[in-house]
Amino acid sequence: xxxxxxxxxxxxxxxxxxxxxxxxxxxxxxxxxxxxxxxxxxxxxxxxxxxxxxxxxxxxxxxxxxxxxxxxxxxxxxxxxxxxxxxxxxxxxxxxxxxxxxxxxxxxxxxxxxxxxxxxxxxxxxxxxxxxxxxxxxxxxxxxxxxxxxxxxxxxxxxxxxxxxxxxxxxxxxxxxxxxxxxxxxxxxxxxxxxxxxxxxxxxxxxxxxxxxxxxxxxxxxxxxxxxxxxxxxxxxxxxxxxxxxxxxxxxxxxxxxxxxxxxxxxxxxxxxxxxxxxxxxxxxxxxxxxxxxxxxxxxxxxxxxxxxxxxxxxxxxxxxxxxxxxxxxxxxxxxxxxxxxxxxx
Length: 346
Known about the structure:
By secondary structure, the chain is an alpha/beta fold. It contains 12 helices and 9 strands.
């Protein structure tokens, strides 16, 4: 899907791809038949049977995009035995998905507030690739980074298509240094702004793209909405974006999802425990003991994240950090890929 979204003629600036509803009143809505999603001269005229997995909104010219989305024309084949259940797939991948061996070159970027983020580039690409090669910035999910298998596989796939790839490791993730008490959050796009500006200065002749997963996707879409008409990115992909963090929080605490909530809370605890000296003697509403013992993501956010970014409660933080409020301002070509079983909507 990454390849499909970036090939072909340059897309119009007002294009949004997304699988959410309801869409704005001014949006152009199109449902596409998977049987006709092949690049052929008669393709556009053949779109007679609706396909529920694709909507084109925001004034996009579908004839520029749909012929290159070749995956829509192929049947979905679930992974044998485990593909019938999303939880089995997730757990299986976390334990058995291969970790590609990629040599990375790290550069830390200092932010205006004294914070630090780590940018991991593929070693040797600065010599191997032409200076005008397209650049892809990867934004992993909550607590994720360049050490994760899903990030490595996307990195290799993009490189095989000629992209220069860099992984944006947020503060504390993938052993990125934490140099200020301010962590990162779903609402804060300042670090991404610095990263995009930095990467653009390194490769001024290249088109810049970005792909984000989960919380990284939420941050990416918020950034696109904030930058709106002046966004320097040529295109972006949002994968498994929660969009509405209030609904995501509620869903996180239901049924088997508690397993993921506890796992992410443990990862957050591990990050903060490595940097406890930064949080000693914190005054005000900070509750560091709550964060270091958090059993859920919400408990961690209540003790640290929401205070760092000026919110009165975790609920207020979630309500004001959702990318569902930002997507209507996006003017960069954007492909959003969601699971039908995610339960999130705009």
